[in-house]
Specification:
globular; 542 residues; 34% helix; 8-stranded mixed β-sheet; 6-stranded antiparallel β-sheet
Amino acid sequence: MAGRPERETGAMVVTPQPEATECGIEVLRAGGNAVDAAIAAAFVQGVVDPLMCGIAGFGSMAVWRAADGAHEYVDFHAPAPAAATPDMWEDLIEGEARDGFGFTLRGRVNDIGYLSVCVPASLRAYATAHDRHGRLPWADLLIHAIRWARGGWTVRPHVHGWWSMPAEMGRVANYERIAWSAPGRALYCREDGSPKQVGDRVENPELAETLETIAGEGADSFYTGSIASTIAADMAARGGLVTARDLAEYRAAIRSPLETVYRGRRVTSNQPPGGGLMLLEMLNILERFDLPALGHNSAEYLRVVAEAMKQATIDKDRHIGDPDFVDVPVQTLLSKDYARDVAGRIQRGEMADVPRFSAAGPSRDTTQVCVTDADGNCVSMTHSLGMPSGVVTPGLGFMYNGCMGVFDPRPGHAGSIAPGKARFSSVCPSIVFRDGRPELVIGAPGATQIAMGVLQAILNVLDFGASMSDAVAWPRFSATSNLIDVTNRIPQFVTRDLERQGYGIVRSPQSYGIAWVHGIRLTGHGPEGGADPATDGMALSC
């Protein structure tokens, strides 16, 4: 999982894709900083993991600058197009996903196809971060992605497994997404229409041309230039909501981090509509417990942590949305007093109730980049397509996000549809500080499970002394409903104890899962990298 050079600088890159990790290291060796490496790696990820992320996606990037301790988030949550309305799908509701990650509608109009697309945000954010923090020329950051797109790449086991995944929780199957458009079928399917297999090659010259245009003309080519014109024309011709004006008006947001103190460490994460508030709320609750005394992944440990997860999920469903549209009670949910009250209920054995609207396995269409450089700068970026729309505009080579699928189609809720509004996302790229310096740079893909996976990896390090590689590999669980989801390495004698207490258990056949956590732990003897063993990823230092 980690490679070490003869002479270390303290620089490291961790991603779920070997091609992206290698790209990040090459950018650092060429004189780039952590932001340059993260952006270049993200471009490569969009090529070699095209259902997970891309230039038409969304996400959140944490940046910490060692020279002066400046810390900010570049948030790029894809907004609903201006033509969207709160009641546009109110009469189509069939149910809500059990994990709270979206609703199922008749015709699946929110889940696949042109109506599912929100305003693409990722490319604008990459450019914004580069303008604010980058060192290398912009065009240099696209060289590796262009090379992979034109020269081709090999389908890896994790990619094939993801493309082949059947429908879960009422959502469209991933093999339907890659085959939905003619360009998608040509790129990612065999002649019989099935997903390409492990070892098959994918060449995408149209994406290479798109990236070359972006390298030469900048991100404006995508938002106001020739690429924007192609996008707008395709959307208009096929009933999409995104317009040229939506593209031209989009800007990434620069926000200060949310933060709390856990066991004497400062923990920072992103603002709503990201998942940082959920993560920090859970840490505050769990700080009231002696977790090592409970025993790692014991029945009582699972009960306590799962109840904290359930309460954070309840608060997310009730309160967390786009702060430009919803009054999010951040200070209340972050307060130690609130955490004490919730912890008291857990100590008394109370079970929180997570309501679901006619609830129907988890979605993880996201990816992660963690980077530290020789100067001590740190980046954690989680970016995604949400539930990929399946839409590939002819001639452009990339898939669009499907972010409309997670909005609440019922008017009057925190997650309801509104023009220009971003929907909640569990992405929570985070940094843990000790004595004023970064100790953990961490994040994960995993849809609603993201905060739950990141939480457990942080607890594994801070409460149980795990190395970074162990912290991302130990068995995980999640509770985003009234059921507890567990991976198959959680012993059945543990879950039988919970079932006797009245908990419903859903056991995955997978040994790994509940988000795919990646991170860097900075120690006195150099960085430790951890790439979740459920992915194809790796950590490299230079």
